[in-house]
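[Discussion] Sanity-checking designs against the backbone

I'm trying to build intuition for which residues belong where. Below is a structure token string of 741 positions. I'd appreciate it if someone posts a full sequence so I can compare it with mine line by line.
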């Protein structure tokens, strides 16, 4: 607990809790140093380094000296090294979800297990028993629920602890060696379909459980009872009677207590009947995560309040059987090897160290992370980033042949370009070309260390201008939905007397004419009161002064107007019979748009589903399932016009059509593909983008940039790769000609 170790910009730093200076242990722009971890006794640190071209494990003293390099099997990307409590072994995982065991002294590695699923949530992280004889870890089963496994180093095999009928994760060992704690959920349900739109708004509550490892060990949660105690007189008489007997044993017992404290923990696990020794702690189920064990009988866990970006940290003790909130609004935390010190982060790069079992006061124990400084050699760093980006295509691409690309050729061809880069934009361009050689739709790169350039916030009125009489006229006012803060219109609403057709004569007292750029007068007016002079004629006589508050971005206003224009047009052309629903993507906003517009028009006789410009996200099973519902019957309604309730009731019955175009892709490819497969209706428009692979799981580059390497690709029921680089063809082709719109 004297120092914290950090990875930043590919270097390893240690930061003192109180005394001393920040140390940079690596000082290298030419390599990436990642995932540092203290040894249990605090004398060493291990981390992964790609110095030399491939990642290997480095073990050094706390000053970064006396480095020992250990080569690991199968060059790839590695994660989460964890020391055994005795310091003799290190377990870790890799890009392929393999769980490895390293003998530090011998440098030998042993494969423990493999998760078997390239799931975006990595869960196969190891947790050591206090006696270094067992490793607990989470593994995803064939039902894609997580289960807890125990690996015995002595027997060289794993045993399943939980039955797989609940989603279990975050195993950790009590320091006394008697229990394992873990999180489990029985309402995980549709979250199995993490790629499905139907998994949205499906909160998962997890309870905290304890497994009693030895068959003879009593439950720590047995009922407790307060009983009357004997009077002082009775205690005194019996005490005098037994005093000589007690005194005779006192010395020996005291020495035995000391021996017991110094005695090493031995973990005993009786596998038979272990599933019947799993107990629920008296903590109500909630959205818990990051379960960890502190000192003996103490656990820590985080809870995310509903729709909050920050979490709360709680501490629970078996002795008191009580939970206490100890930190508010944190992002993450970790414990020292002995469980006595707590490192946590609040806000942006604010880190704190505190006594794990003590009272934690807000703001105390802040670390001096501002002193984590380094000298970056851009050219050497860019060489490392290029190698990393190339390795990501090798290690994470969804098919091993990388669409036929000769990866060695790609490296030889483009690596020399990097030495000519003079700006991060040059490197991004090279990485983009490298990714493009894979011939994949989802090849994206960006981010990184760019100059921090101040932008000028220009205010926007949410209007279209027209030029008339050498002045600017408000041709259209986008009115939005003023009851919705995200769709506020600056030029509409009670008390704002601005009308379509008005001339904009001046802004904040500065006259405006058609020879000027109108936006030049709105420099730095976003979200600030701005005075407009408007009139329904091209002069100042009778003009009105109106105070408005311009927006920094009016794209949402314009998008909403486009949707409403389309909806009204469909309503008009169909004589009120057809609904219109646009899905901007197959993620959260697409889900929300569908829910808002589809069910509100369930009285229509059919529907036009518009997915043009759909940017994708998830698989729109939720939408397709609802669109393909079948009418199964009715329930009568004895009131009003006797309109019956349909069964099911949340649907639009009648014909449906989907409009598609070349700017709809990814999830926007899959949705029309499923629409056709389910024979819901015709597809009208132009062929979709043709990019049906998924991107997840690829680490960030050392400067915060990224490059994608698709992790999963789509194939059809006939076992053929489909849609990627093909697209979905319309049944009726309709080109949008500029002259027609």
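Best answer:
Here's mine. Compare freely.
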């Amino acid at each position: 607990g004297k120092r914290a170790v950090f990875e930043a910009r590919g270097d390893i730093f240690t930061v003192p809790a109180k005394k001393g200076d920040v140390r940079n242990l690596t000082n290298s722009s030419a390599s990436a140093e990642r995932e540092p971890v203290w040894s249990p006794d605090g004398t060493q640190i291990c981390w992964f380094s790609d110095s030399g071209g491939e990642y290997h494990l480095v073990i050094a003293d706390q000053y970064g000296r006396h480095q020992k390099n250990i080569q690991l099997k199968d060059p790839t990307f590695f994660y989460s090294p964890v020391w055994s409590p005795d310091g003799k072994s290190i377990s870790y995982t890799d890009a392929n979800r393999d769980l490895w065991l390293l003998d530090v002294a011998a440098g030998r590695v042993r494969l423990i297990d493999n998760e078997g699923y390239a799931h975006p949530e990595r869960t196969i992280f190891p947790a050591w028993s206090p006696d270094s004889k067992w490793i607990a870890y989470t593994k995803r089963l064939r039902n894609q629920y997580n289960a807890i496994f125990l690996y015995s180093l002595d027997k060289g095999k794993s045993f399943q602890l939980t039955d797989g009928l609940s989603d279990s994760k975050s195993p950790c060992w009590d320091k006394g060696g008697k229990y394992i704690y873990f999180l489990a959920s029985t309402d995980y349900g549709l979250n199995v379909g993490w790629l499905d739109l139907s998994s949205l708004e499906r909160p998962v509550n997890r309870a905290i459980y304890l497994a009693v490892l030895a068959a003879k060990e009593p439950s720590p949660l047995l009922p407790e009872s307060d009983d009357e105690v004997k009077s002082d007189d009775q205690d005194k008489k019996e005490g005098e009677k037994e005093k000589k007997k007690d005194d005779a044993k006192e010395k020996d017992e005291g020495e035995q207590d000391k021996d017991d404290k110094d005695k090493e923990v031995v973990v005993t696990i009786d596998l038979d009947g272990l599933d019947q020794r799993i107990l629920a702690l008296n903590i109500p189920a909630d959205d818990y995560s990051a379960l960890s064990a502190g000192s003996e009988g103490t656990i820590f866990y985080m809870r995310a309040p509903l729709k909050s970006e920050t979490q709360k940290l709680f501490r629970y003790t078996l002795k008191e059987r009580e939970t206490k909130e100890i930190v508010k609004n944190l992002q993450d935390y970790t414990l020292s090897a002995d469980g006595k010190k707590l490192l946590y982060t609040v806000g942006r790069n604010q880190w704190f160290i505190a006594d794990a079992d003590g009272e934690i006061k807000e703001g105390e124990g802040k670390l001096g992370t501002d002193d984590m400084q380094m000298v970056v050699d851009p050219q050497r760093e860019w060489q490392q980033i290029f190698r990393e980006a190339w390795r990501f295509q090798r290690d994470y691409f969804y098919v091993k042949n990388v669409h036929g690309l000769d990866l060695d050729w790609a490296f030889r061809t483009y690596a020399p370009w990097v030495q000519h880069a003079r700006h991060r934009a040059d490197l991004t361009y090279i990485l983009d070309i490298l990714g493009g050689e894979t011939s994949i739709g989802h090849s994206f790169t960006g981010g990184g260390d760019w100059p921090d350039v101040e932008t000028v916030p220009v205010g926007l009125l949410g209007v279209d201008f027209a030029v008339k009489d050498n002045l600017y006229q408000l041709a259209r006012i986008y009115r939005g939905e003023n009851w919705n803060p995200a769709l506020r219109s600056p030029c509409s609403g009670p008390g704002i007397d601005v009308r379509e057709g008005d001339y904009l004569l001046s802004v904040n007292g500065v006259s405006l004419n058609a020879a000027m750029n109108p936006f030049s007068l709105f420099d730095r007016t976003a979200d600030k009161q701005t005075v407009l002079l408007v009139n329904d004629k091209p002069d100042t006589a009778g003009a009105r002064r109106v105070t408005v508050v311009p927006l920094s971005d009016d794209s949402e206003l314009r998008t909403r107007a486009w949707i409403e224009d389309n909806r009204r047009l469909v309503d008009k052309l169909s004589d009120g019979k057809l609904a219109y629903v646009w899905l901007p993507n197959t993620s959260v906003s697409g889900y929300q748009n569908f829910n808002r517009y589809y069910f509100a028009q369930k009285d229509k006789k059919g529907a036009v589903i518009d997915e043009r410009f759909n940017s994708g996200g998830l698989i729109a099973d939720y939408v397709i399932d609802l669109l393909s519902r079948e009418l199964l019957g009715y329930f009568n309604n004895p009131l009003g016009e006797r309109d019956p309730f349909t069964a099911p009731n949340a649907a639009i019955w009648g014909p449906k059509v989907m409009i598609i175009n070349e700017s709809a892709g990814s999830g926007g490819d899959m949705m029309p593909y499923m629409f056709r497969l389910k024979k819901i209706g015709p597809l009208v428009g132009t062929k979709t983008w043709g990019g049906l692979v998924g991107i997840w799981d690829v680490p960030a580059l050392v400067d915060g940039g990224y490059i994608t390497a698709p992790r999963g690709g789509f194939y059809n029921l006939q076992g053929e790769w489909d849609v990627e680089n093909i697209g979905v063809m319309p049944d009726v082709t309709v080109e949008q000609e500029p002259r027609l719109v």
